[in-house]
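Lab notebook: predicted structure, single chain.

Context: the supervisor wants predicted structures on file for every construct in the current expression panel, including those that have not yet been purified. This is the next one on the list. No modifications to the sequence; it matches the entry in the shared construct table.
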Amino acid sequence: MNAVRVVVRGRVQGVGFRAFVVREADALGVAGEVWNRRDGGVEAEGVGPSDALRRFVAALRRGPVHARVEQVMEQWFERELPRGGFRISEGADRA
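Prediction complete. Output recorded below exactly as produced.
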């Protein structure tokens, strides 16, 4: 299955960015997870059909109303479809 890892930088923590990512992923049928990064960015990994993933990345480039997206890096790869839809990762911030 197609997959994409996206790192978003700018004003993306404390503005509802992760919740926005979950809503967008659910609406598009994308599975995966999103988490805050220690460097102030947000990172997400989505798995699904390539058209849905392209729309997912476009939504992350836009972000929610209070965010200010300054940089988006994406990495495409293949991965098995994870179980459980799309979620915000629990636990300590990563990367």
